[in-house]
Amino acid sequence: MKIVVDRARCTGLGICESFAPEVFEVDDNGDLVLSSETVPDGLESEVEQAVTGCPTEALRLEK
Q: Residue 57 in 3-state DSSP?
């Protein structure tokens, strides 16, 4: 699955980072950085939690 970020909606709160720090990181400027544009094997549940936990709905998954 591909991770899609709507940069216009992302406010850099870092909630996604708290669920899946291996994939999401908010840098010093408050910008979201993805370590991978696809969901790594074994992290499907964590990434799905990050997507559903995003309060601004800036994240989604594409198959």
A: coil
